[in-house]
Hints:
This protein has about 300 residues and is mainly alpha-helical. The protein folds into two domains: about 1-230, Endonuclease III, domain 1; about 240-295, Orthogonal Bundle (Arc Repressor Mutant, subunit A). About 55% of the residues lie in helices and about 5% in strands. The chain is built from 14 helices and three strands. The chain has helices at about 5-20, 30-50, 55-65, 70-75, 80-85, 90-110, 115-120, 125-140, 145-160, 170-175, 180-200, 215-220, 240-255, 270-285; strands at about 260, 290, 295. Strands 1-3-2 form a three-stranded antiparallel beta sheet, with no helix packed on it. Strand 2 and strand 3 form a beta hairpin. Helix 2 crosses helix 3 (about 55-65), helix 5 crosses helix 6 (about 90-110) and helix 13 packs across helix 14 (about 270-285). The longest helix is centred in the N-terminal third of the chain and has 19 residues, at about 30-50. The chain is globular and about 65 Å long. The N and C termini lie far apart (about 55 Å). The model has no long low-confidence stretch (mean pLDDT about 95).
Amino acid sequence: MPTASATPVLAAGLADWYRLSARDLPWRRAEFHAEFGGWGVLVSEFMLQQTPVTRVIPHLEAWLERWPRPSGLAAEAPAEAVRQWANLGYPRRALWLHRAAVEIRDRHGDEVSRDLDALLALTGIGDYTARAVAVFAYGERHPVVDTNTRRVLARVLHARSQPGAPSRRDLNAMAEILPAAHDDAAVVNAAAMELGATVCVSRAPRCAACPIAQLCAWRAAGCPDTGDDRRRQARYEGSDRQARGAILKWLRDATMHAVPLHEAAAAWPDPLQRDRAIDSLIADGLAESVDGMLRLPR
Length: 298
């Protein structure tokens, strides 16, 4: 593990590399911040959860073109948020984002707060998203830790090939690395994420391209396989998740506001799985059943 004296070198190595090598992503551009402010960053963070960057970018651009301010989304029915979410996956995020937009309009005058507690009080916003918005939209100084950051920390600090379960220790470790200056701290937060996403990847990490390889405890130990106890997601093909997605797409594409329940057979052939999918969509607030008809939430 790097010593206290090595921490500034670690931070500097990450920051210097990031300034030269970071991908050009919309939410990192000055004009994006000037146009959309904290709202743009908030929407991007909602969309980026468990979703690849390449899939997010076109959806983000379409979303912000339609709703450049929280109040625009808040004025719409939740169904419109679900429709606009399209095939991004984990569609409850669309409902949460709609509720958060209403709260931002009503509580904060249509401006996304920079205060951590105020952000945490919004629907659908957990510790990571609140910190990410405060740091990347407003330059506040907080440690921000996602899956990619946790992998970098596990390898560099603890000589582990994969991170364990998320814990407060990750935030504490990242906090120790951050420079005192707010702007520099934001860059180091972003750099650790970027390094994990593009170089220190889960499989076949590119250690030869790593700017902090000389400080990495895992590399110094010979890159041992220390195991991976992360929870594996169940197969998607043929799953209830796929059935849910098919039913929801059927509802989004329907030309009528509500469609007869018995027509759902066209969306998914297995009747038992189809019924489970419909029941779960209703339970999650993503669909409503009224008089034998199924519709997106109003």
